[in-house]
Amino acid sequence: MSHYDIYAIGNALVDSEYEVTDAQLQSMGVDKRHMTLIDTPRRSALLQHVKAITPRQTGGGSAGNTVVALAQLGGKAFYSCKVAHDDLGDFYIKDLQARGVDTNLNHTRALNGQTGSCMVLVTPDAERSMCTFLGVSAELDEKALHPQSIAKSKIYYMEGYLAASPTGLRAALQGRQIAKDAGVALALTLSDVSMIQFCKEGLDAMLGDGVDYLFCNQEEAQVWCGSNDLNSVKQELKKIAKMVCLTRGPDGSEIITAEHAWHVPADKVKAIDTNGAGDMFAGAFLYAITRGHEPEQAARLGNHAAAAVVSQHGNRLSLGQLSTIKAYALPPLR
User: Fold this and answer.
1) Of 15, 31, 165, 263, most Cβ neighbours within 10 A?
2) What CATH code is carried by the domain that includes residue 315?
3) How far lies 21's CA from each of 32, 127, 128, 132, 274, in Å?
């Protein structure tokens, strides 16, 4: 019997979200809509640009957002990551504990260095541009893994951002092998166009001979396949995953398998902040799947949850919000 619905591995980051104009974003030299890795001097320079803005601070990290969403919906999750012995590390651990997510952090924290952080720059068109300082998360390695917990999980979920870290990638791949040997389903998120452009070899390694679930948005899918034609993109993605979860913003989501395809329309909402939308979709989708719901029903829950998160500032929803969405979107199981 499985103990966890999802065992995930990814970067532990504390998000600081700033509302900026397009002119400010341009003056900062930030690539709009995408994630860029930054070092300490670049982080300091960027912070000077936004020193007059009070940020919103939340726990973050792509896979971290996903496991939190699943746990708040009522699932059971474990998250392998790395933080330092500093205030941000304390903040991150308390955030996971408060959301009901189990983690390795009670036993493995870096003695030196800084906890990773992400500057999320949100423009008036609701697009988010991320500048990520990995800190000690860049040193995530196999010591963060709990092999017994992986083997007792339903799904092993890999964050594509780990393709940028040699040690993080090795840890993700070691966990993948443990999961595969134990018959645990495999899931991967492509994470960001920048990972496809600069770290595709690592993503290919995570895919290996294929995964059970692949999560990506339309732009990521098109860049991965080198085509803007959605029909050919879908055909290519089916070759690498048993189930492809393709999110398309206001055009909803598409769930694709070798035999079936479902298009699930999006809620009509005014987008304020797209940060965390894909992570929220993945967490809600996998919660429903691990509860025995059909893919179309799981995508409907994912769409509703993602619509709610883009309708507000911040990458997380409250327990009350998610409970209401679950009651509305998911039919009782027969």
Assistant:
1) 15
2) 3.40.1190.20
3) 11, 11, 11, 19, 15
